[in-house]
Design brief:
By secondary structure, the chain is an alpha/beta fold. The protein has 19 helices and 18 strands. Strands 5-6-7-3-8-9 form a 6-stranded mixed beta sheet, with helices on both faces. It has a 6-stranded mixed beta sheet with strand order 14-15-16-12-17-18, sandwiched between helices. A 3-stranded antiparallel beta sheet has the order 2-1-4, covered by helices on one side. Helix 2 crosses helix 3, helix 3 packs across helix 5 and helix 18 packs antiparallel against helix 19.
Length: 622
Amino acid sequence: MSVLLQIRDANKRYGDQVLLDNAECTITSDTKVGFMGRNGAGKSTLLRCILGDEELDTGTIIRHPKLKLGYLRQHDPFLPGETSLEFLMRDSEQPDWKCGEVAGQFELKGKYLDGPVGELSGGWQTRVKLAALLLHEPNLLLLDEPTNFLDLRTQILLEHFLRDFREACLIVSHDRAFLGATCESTLDLSSGKLTMYPGKVDDFLVYQAELAEHNQRVNAATEVKRKQLQEFVDKNRARASTATRAKSKSKMLDRLEFIDVQAEQARATIRAPMVEPRKGPAVRCKDLAIGYDERAVAKGIDLEIEHGSRAAIVGDNGQGKTTLLRTLVRSLQPVGGDVRWGFGCEIGTYAQHVYTSLPDQKTVLEYLEYEAVPGTKTQTILDVAGAMLFRGEAVRKKISVLSGGERARLCMATLLLGKCNILVLDEPGNHLDVETVEALADALIDYKGTVIFTSHDRHFMKRVASCIVEVKDGTVVNYRGDYDAYLYMVNKEIEAVESERKGTGPRSPSKVPASSSAKPNTNAKPNANAKPNATGKDRSKISAQKQDILANDERVIKKEVNQLEKLIARLDAQKKTLNEQLMHSTEAIAAMKLHEELTQVTTELESAEMRWSELQEQLEGF
């Protein structure tokens, strides 16, 4: 293990906004780090400083002499009309055979390699950019929101690539599921400070919440102690008989210390429109065909979505998910068939084309006033704007200067000011940070209306979706299973393709001639180790021996299962005890030690449960 990169006493600010405040962290050669932080916290700025595209105000970034950075940028570095192969050769200065060899690792061949790269989908372009990175042979990958606009299959392929990548990674992402699957450490940027946590993102978020609660409890206890000491000093300092004791208590008062708790960051408080729950079908599609210019992307669609459902539209990019949503909300006319909404349905739409086509010259407040239901009070509009983090002077910002995340929150605010009982949302989590996505998920779960949505965020999908609608191979169907079942199916399909490509998949049995008249090979040399063909009696004996072996294997597995069940019960009890101790701990050092023990026990418990499941599957085969 070697230190690839060190950031020391880093300071960076834009005007009054402090991005880095004596920030420090170390990245070693043997780790993959998930980089988290609020929108505007300074993550992309720090990446630019690491790359050398921008300078720190003060502080240093120490790079290992053999550090080779590979950076997956959000923008496209392609020239007009060039093919994927031409881009790889231009970018890496490697010969065509080498570029083709590396491209093959990402299944880039045929039209995907020799056709115009600009005509590929975002997912395939990401594969091209990853191949370009590998050709530079980096030992530290910097990935900036790599999952934006990637479909599920390409996300999983990217995960598999990163798990097999033997070098270090620093990955900026708001996608908790992706970070959890690829990174074993978490780096957080909050209030100018960098915090490296030696664990996955979900564990870090739990630790962060527990630490904040613990620090608040300690400070509350310290405040009570301070008041008691102050009261004693105030009452007894003037008395000769107690002046000495008062002086001693005063010294104790001076030694009291409060834990420095960072001011809680503003959180988006999202409340979906208050609507009356309804029953029956919200929308029906009959023999529907969707597409563009009379060309059907999918047809023969017979679909029904019930009121109160939260229907997730799933499928690969290019299959027609957004086309289906646009057809449902009538921003795109059907190629054929019919879409019918139930009586009294009021539809609110959130889509990428909505927040990229906002009126630039209006301010946030002006736009919300224009979009709000007539008669809405100004204070109500300000409250909703504040909930989406437009507070104070931020409501007077022109839309032209808003970031992608700010525009997304502005569009969401307009839906909150309405009274829609149907919400159709196309990628609502894009450009939103982890906390805001969580708040949105909470709001949609509590919403009494109907939600039809697409998302590439698996954590968000799993939390929100109550039913799955799959767009695949020119048709649209209700998927008979939950989102976990859908994920499992897609993973299996990808693993099968990868196994086949690597030659590790199941092989077809050798073909045996049907005719018994095939001539023996008289030129074959006799095998000295070959055993004579078994007689019927011998075969029975061999069969009995196999049964004995299987029975013995089954006993061994059952014994291990019993041992695991005892271990799982013990670890589970230990986990509950540690959780209880952690919640009531008032010592910072003790709390950290308890948290480390809890993390270790949780890991052991998960490993034991996984092994138990594997053994259960083996027992079912006996």
